[in-house]
Amino acid sequence: MKRSTFISFVAPSVMSMLILIALPLVAIVYLALYQSYTQMEIKEVKTEVPLFGGMTREVIRNVPQPVMDDAGNPIQVWEYVGTQNLKNAIDTEGLSSAFNADQNINSTRSFIRALFDEIRDVDFWSALEFTLIYTFLTTPIIIILGFGLALATNRLTERLRGPVVFVTLLPMIVTPVVSSLAVYWLFVDGGVIAASLEAMGIGKFYFLADQFTIRAVIVAYGVWYAAPFAFIILYAGLQTVPEEPIEAAIVDGASPWQRVRYIVIPHLTPLFSVIALIHIMDSYRVFEPILVFGSRVFANSVQYLTYYTLVFEDNIHKASAYAILTVLGVVVLLIPIMIRTFKDQKAGK
Amino acid sequence: MKIKQILMATALTLAPLGAAAECSIEGTGEVNVISNFFEALEVLSNEMKNCGNDNLIIDTKLTTDHKEETNKAFAAATSPFDAAAVANSSITLLQAKGQLRPLNDLVEKYRDEYNIEDGMLIKFGDEVAAIAFMVNAQHLFFRKDIFEEHGVAVPSTWDELLDAGEKLKAAGIEHPYGAAFGNSWELANEYVNLLLANGGTLFDPATSDSTFETPEAIEALKMMGELYKLMSPNAMSMDFGDVKRQLQQGDVAMAILWGNEASAMDDEKESTVVGKVGFAAAPAMTAGGAPASTFWWDGYVIPKNLDGDPDLTFQVLMHAMREETVKANNDITLWIRSAYEPGEYTSAITDTVVNGAPPYPMNPQASLAHGALGENIADFIVGKESAEESLADATKAYRSAAQEQGLLK
User: How many CB pairs under 8 A join A and B?
Assistant: First the structure.
């Protein structure tokens, strides 16, 4: 192929990758290096607050007011702060003080406890804690569950398969915010599950009342939501398993389990890697159940933290720092799988 | 848990409310107004829309995400919104950043035409920054029938409320009390109410540094912990809308709610306790002290960077806020206009304010302090750490946020 032809073929992809992937990444790195605010000075300002019936209450206070430039516009400060935003996000100061506090603490055990307390107190680390728990719990469960569902569906008659596949895919079709809300309403006071358990005489359960149950509900929701994804990929993969080795195995007297273990699973290995890869990326960005369940004192996520910082603290710079940490986190988690896939491909050649 | 509110809000039918009086504003252009979502704002928004015609396009956006959208819009080169509804806390940063258009000239021009009362003007110094239309305060809602049945008196202090709660609990009412602890902003608001009533402060106005770690603050926070024991264990996941429903469905015997929700207790479409709910001033921290509540005004501001015509926008706002609107919708809230006739649903707000509840602090530092507290005090309430540790964490969060906003060196 001529060089110019090649370039004209790839140029659109390269351009869109630059604009849609590279540019936002560069932008968040850039934003994370700066800080911006309106310059303010504290002035004594008399404020009046209305009551009702025409009454007002007068209050005199020191209120920050904008500093104006010569043209009468508020002065906007935009300053380079380097890695300060990132350092604030991961709280390097708090971490080092926790590490250096060991002079006062005698045993390793109490040192680790102090360190853990410190870590749990910082927004980022506590968010990371649950993000990782969620990722590492849901990934194996959805693969096993999805595989089981795929095997079971594969044994159904042709006529049943279509409806079963459709019903299994439903959790994926519903918008995550809506399904999170549906789950929330099942478990809240007087919700279907809470009320049914009580009616059955099992007693009152408060699923949203402590860390363990609320986390369990969110993980269960994650499994329910993502298992269909693993299912549909593995079900498609099962259709490609060659007949001959299976028949040969039956002739040799292999049990159904042995057929799955020694023929089907090796055949589907690349698919397991793909599912793990995509699901880890997805679950590291868990957001909707955290937003809807609202109980961030028990479960927080890195993605929610980014959103919170941007929307409620109105601080795009710190939010960018969290976004960088999210990207880094995903990359770190994916490295082992990437290496493995790369090795497999090499061996395949 | 805003999404929940948005879904609930969309589920409600937006029936046209109020008197559809003719609007005589002449002008050409577009007026876009953003506001929060509650009944009084719906009424005003419908009044504004009545002014729309072929030449004058009026668009209102009611959303619980109004604060974030307003902050972004007013900081942009030109704002897509020509006016926004704000309150004590949300006006502070907008004003401190110099983003609000002073309204003095427009007030003078239209004072007689729309009978703009002095009590409606929110002033920073001589500058009129906003025109307010209602005031609001949180106060006690209680079940008259349950209180009577168990011989419980309406509590006037928080200690009495704890006693009343214990008594009701002993009488078999599992969760006597309800308050919005599930949303971090609302949680902090409950705390600020107790803190200010206990003589505490949020920050030092001279230095802008926080004053979270005081004996008054610890006492107020410990009261939150005691109250949580009277609430549903799920309370840390329940926001204001959930608490309102708890009371309407008879799940709790008393709650602290916003005063403008009082009439909703007697709305047969959504309440199962019509006629059974009584209203009283918020309890005080100390006997004879000020009620633990802050009072709030709601009003409209016009940004400096609007893309429409400020004069036209102002007329549309003033038309909506005119006396007829107040008269036609007297009971839905506590209107500021003197045409308002106090009714049974607002007397608890006036009691709360007259008994000395302070206005919510109109300083940007207070907003930052509020945010920092909301994200940190829950750890104490659920028993993860001590009150002192939670407040120390909040101090740290406040200092970092204040430095990032340039308020603290």
Answer: 187
Region A124-348: CATH code: 1.10.3720.10
Other beta carbons less than 10 A from residue B10's beta carbon: 10
Instruction: Determine the average pLDDT of the residues in B257-264.
Output: 90
Measure in Å the smallest separation between the Cα of A31 and chain B Cα atoms.
13
Indicate if the pLDDT at residue A342 is higher than 50: yes
Cβ atoms A319, A174 nearer than 8 A: no
Q: Could you report the per-residue pLDDT of A262-308, keeping only the tens digit for each?
A: 999 999 988 999 999 999 999 998 999 998 887 678 888 989 989 88
Instruction: Give the pLDDT score at B18.
Output: 41
List the one residue out of B125, B47, B369 whose CA is nearest residue A48.
Answer: B125
Q: CA-nearest residue of chain A to B384?
A: A297
Closest in A42, A297, A315 to B382, CB measured: A297
Which of these, B157, B150, B256, B146, lies nearest to B197 by C-alpha position?
Answer: B157
Contacts of B384 in chain A (CB under 8 A): 297
- For the stretch A37-96, pLDDT in tens is 888 888 888 777 766 665 666 677 778 888 888 887 888 888 898 888 888 888 887 777
Nearest Cα residue to B374 out of B91, B89, B87, B181? B181
* Residues in A touching B335 (Cβ below 8 Å): 52
Contact B125 A46 (CB under 8 A): yes
Amino acid residing at B298: D
The helix-helix angle for A123-154 and A108-121 (nearest 10°) equals 80
Q: What is the DSSP string of B58-70?
A: EEEEE-TTHHHHH
- B272-319 residue pLDDT tens: 999 999 999 999 998 888 999 998 999 999 999 998 899 999 999 999
Diameter of chain B by CA atoms?
Answer: 66
Nearest to B343 by CA among B357, B333, B353: B333
SS3 of residue B286 by DSSP: coil
- Map out the domains of chain B with their CATH numbers: 2-136+296-351 (3.40.190.10), 137-294+354-404 (3.40.190.10)
Residues in chain A closer than 8 A to B205 (CB atoms): 42, 61-62
Amino acid sitting at position B108 = E
Residues 1-60 of B with CB under 8 A from A: 1, 3-4, 7
pLDDT tens-digit map of B31-51? 999 999 888 999 999 999 988
Where are chain A's structural domains? 3-32, 40-74, 84-117, 124-348
Token pair of A119 as six digits? 């870590």
pLDDT at position A197 is 86
Residues of B in contact with A93 (CB under 8 A): none
Interface contact B297-A49, CB threshold 8 A:
yes
Could you give the residue ranges of the DSSP H alpha helices within chain A?
3-17, 23-32, 84-90, 92-100, 108-121, 123-154, 158-173, 176-187, 192-199, 211-238, 243-251, 256-259, 265-284, 288-293, 302-311, 316-348
Q: Within an 8 Å CB–CB cutoff, is residue B369 touching chain A?
A: no
| Chain A residues within an 8 Å CB radius of B364 | 40, 64
Residue of B nearest to A314 (CA): B68
pTM for this predicted structure = 0.84
Predicted local distance difference test score (pLDDT) of residue B20: 47
Distance from CA of B364 to the nearest CA of A (A): 7
Answer whether A65 sits within 8 Å of B382, measured CB to CB: no
Residue B159 has pLDDT above 90, yes or no: yes
**What is the token pair recorded at B165?**
């709660």
